[in-house]
Every structure is written in structure tokens, then in C-alpha cells.
Amino acid sequence: MMNAIPKDSKIPELLSPAGNLKKLKIALEYGADAVYGGVSHFSLRNRSGKEFNFDSFKEGVEYAHKRKKKIYVTINGFPFNSQLKLLRTHIEKMAELKPDAFIIATPGVVKLARQIAPEIPLHLSTQANVLNVLDAQVFYELGVKRIIAARELSLKDAMEIKKALPDLELEIFIHGSMCFAFSGRCLISALQNGRVPNRGSCANDCRFDYEYYIRNEANDALVRFNGKEIYARNPDNGITLRLEEEEGIGTHIFNAKDLNLASHIPMILQSGAIDSLKIEGRTKSSYYAGITALAYKRALEDYAKGDFAESRYTDELETLKNRGFSEGYLIHRPYEKLNTQNHLTAISEGSYQVNAEVSEDGKSALCRHTIRPNEPKEIVSAHWDSIQNGKNDIGEIFEKNGKKYLCLFKILLVNGKELESIHSGNENAFILPFALPPFSFLRQRV
After folding, report:
1. Which of 1, 153, 215, 346 qualifies as a cystine partner to 207, CB 3.0-4.6 A?
2. Strand pairing partners for 405?
3. How far apart are CA 412 and CA 203, in angstroms?
4. Cα separation values, 322 from 5, 185, 244, Å
């Protein structure tokens, strides 16, 4: 057991992604202090932006505020001249919802937002690439309340910025996907697919399987490389790179591992420099929204009371689909790390499979992976302690080895039908034997 955080220290805000209204509710239910999301192509996550319309986002703002939580609007795209009139209208409309901040990426949009909605605090997006005191000072003088630091910022540099500008809030990423680019400023997707990452429509080209070809100088033809290893050497510095390729699959030459800083929570909090801890992933699953919020909230609470145990949080985060985990660049400089890339696979399944997502009222669930009668599934919930054991004709809830399980004796749909088994893709909810806390999950180890 380590010493509790000093009484005069502040526990940072835990900020989670809200890709849609359901994920927003789940993140807040599982422990997030605030969420971020947006509407339209100005949001820098076109896919998730389409999952919100004005009315559903308004409902999300009201839902968060009713629970004394915060919500930040992403307006961090890079607009062209032809879009400025539409951008102005969009800012005006979002300001009517009275969110807790706008997240913006460019100086011009910062200035425009201050003109249109001076009452809304401004947070500077990581896309602005702030790495030093000089740039932080410029944006602070423009009226920015918080800077979401560049992914490449070190904790030491964050402390220097905080020392120079103590009233400026600093936010850092602690979990989620990383880009093979400088703070997400990628061009690969635009060049290959015409989908511009910095305007919200990334095609994730860095995750693709790539195969090697050798150019035949005689006829300028591309010939498939027949082998599993190829070496590339830089004659100027002598550095040799080996690119390995699995036959029939290819390799992943740009694919970054996912960021995971759960083990460094004590160091981050002890720095006293960080005001908000941000989780990436608006386009990820509902389960991801819940588990990341749950794991990091427990880490913060446990550290505050002097009971931090790394494996509690890292084991839970390992249940998520991921590309392997990396500490990123907050603790080590990029050139000091050799484990930030995953050249073997675009994604792994994680240690658990999600079988079902429980409804908001807790009475039914939707299947996400095959469920059969008499096969127990572990219950994951933000309110685990409130789950009571019980047994009836539909099923049973019981405890084993410190975990709660649900076992269905029969699969009854809310529409009255009974099934021998239920599979993913079936959007008919099935009845639970007893009500569970809102947005619980059923899962099994893989």
C-alpha cells in the first residue's frame, strides 16, 4: 500500500469519449466525470458525429448536467473558406445547448468562438500540437482555458508549462488508439483514399495489411516478394530495418500500439501538473466506453485513499480489444522506445468476449455473442455490490471466486418467443431473470 495523495492535491477529472447517446450514458454510469463528443463534420470524428444529431446531443447535455457531470463539444475540425459561414452557424447552435466547453484546434476558430459565444470556455485540441511554454502562452492569451497537450508531450514538459502558467488547465491522453503521425496530423488516408483524417473521415490506412513488392528495372513491373523477411538499410547512418511478413497475410508497417498509462497514474498525479485525464475512442464499442471509465476511475479513487494496485486496472483493460499496449511518449521520448508499433496484427480480441449488453432499465439485454442455456456468463457492472443473488424459472445469479455470474435456464425474448440459443445480430432483447444495474455487461473469457 502506498501513501495517499496529499490533501492539498487535486484528483484530475476523468474524461471519456461519447460516440453516441448510449455510450455517453455508459461512460458516465461507469465513473467518468465528463464526456466529449460532437455533431457534424466539424467534430473530427465523422463516423461518431453522424451518430449524434442536434436533438440527441441536446439530450446528452441535459443527461450529463442532471448528474452534475460535464460535457465538452468537439469543434476541432479544420475548416475551409467555403465552410466558414456554416461553421459560424454551427457554433451558435452548439452554444445554445450550454455545454461546459468547446474543443477547438485552430487559432482562427478560437477567435471566432470567443466572438460568437464568449460565455463558453475553450479547450484547445491536441491537433494544435502544443509542446512548449511559448505556444501554451499564445493560446492562453487568446482566451483558451485548457490545453489538450500533444501526444508527444513529456510529463516533465507538462510540469514546466504548469509552472509557467498555473491557471492554464492541462489535459493529457491516458488510453486509446495512437496514430503513426505527429499528434494525429496524418496524410496517408487522404493520399490513398481521399478521406482526410484532419477533417474527420480517417480510413485507418495505417492499420491495413501491406505486402511487399520488388520493382523489376528491366520492364518496370512490380513483382511480389517471395519470402518472409526483407531488410532495408540506410547508407547514411547504417541503420538496418527488418520487415517481417506472414505468408498470405502481409505485415503492418504503420500500425501503432494502443496507449495505456494505467500503471503510471501515481506518477501523473504526483506531478501536480495535470487537470484532466482523457480516454480516446468515440468510435469504439459500448463495452470499451464502460470498462475504460471503470478501470481508470478505480485507479484514481484507489490512489486517493492509498490503495493503488496496478493489476486491478491493467487486468481489466486487457479484456478490451486492442493492438497491444504502449506507454506512448509521456514517460519516454519517442526515440527511447522500441515497443510503440505492432507489426503483427491490426487488432487483437482481448482476454474476454462480450456476450450481452444490458438495457438502461436493467430488465433485458441484447446479445453480442452466442448465449446458450446453462452456460454462466460473468456480470460486469458499475454497481457490482448492488447485485443480489437469486434463482427463478428463467435463470440464476450467483457469486463464485469473488465474481458475479448469470446463468440462463431458458432464453425468452421480450416479444414472447423462446429460443434454444441466441446469437450476435439478433436485435431482439432477451429477458433477464432479475434486473441488473443499468448498462451492465455479460462476458466470458476467451
Report:
1. 346
2. 378, 398
3. 40
4. 31, 22, 21
Place of cell 494505467: 262
Among 153, 111, 101, smallest CA distance to 130 is for 153
Cα dist from 433 to 176, 235, 376, 407, whole Å: 35, 68, 13, 9
The span from the first CA to the last CA of the chain, in angstroms, equals 32
Count the neighbouring beta carbons within 10 Å of the beta carbon of residue 381: 21
Amino acid at 414: V
pTM of the model: 0.87
Going residue by residue through the chain, which has 446 residues, state the pLDDT in tens, using 9 for 90 and above: 445 555 556 899 999 999 999 999 999 999 999 999 998 767 655 554 468 999 999 999 999 999 999 999 999 988 889 999 999 999 999 999 999 999 999 999 999 999 999 999 999 999 899 999 999 999 999 999 999 999 889 999 999 999 999 999 999 999 998 876 666 666 666 667 777 666 666 777 777 776 655 455 555 554 555 555 555 565 665 655 555 656 655 566 677 889 999 999 999 999 999 999 999 999 899 999 999 999 999 999 999 999 999 999 999 999 999 988 988 889 876 555 556 777 667 777 789 999 999 999 999 999 999 999 999 999 999 999 999 999 999 999 999 999 999 999 999 999 999 999 999 999 999 999 999 999 999 999 99
Report whether 408 contacts 400 (CB < 8 A): no
DSSP state string for 311-360: HHHHHHHTTS-BS-EE-TTSSS-GGG-S-SB--S-S-B--SEEEEEEE-T
Helix (H, G, I), strand (E, B) or coil at 45: coil
Residue 222, sorted as left (phi over 0), alpha (psi -120 to 50) or beta, turns out to be beta
Q: Nearest CA to 411 among 345, 350, 366?
A: 366
Residue environment code for 37-73, b if the CB has 16+ CB neighbours within 10 A, otherwise e: bbbbbbbbbbebbebbeeeebbbbbebbeeeebbbbb
Decide: residue 184, CB within 10 A, 0-12 exposed, 13-18 middle, 19+ buried. Answer: buried
Beta strand pairing call for 221-224 and 213-216: antiparallel
Helix axes 310-317, 286-304, angle to 10 degrees: 180
Compute the residue count for the chain.
446
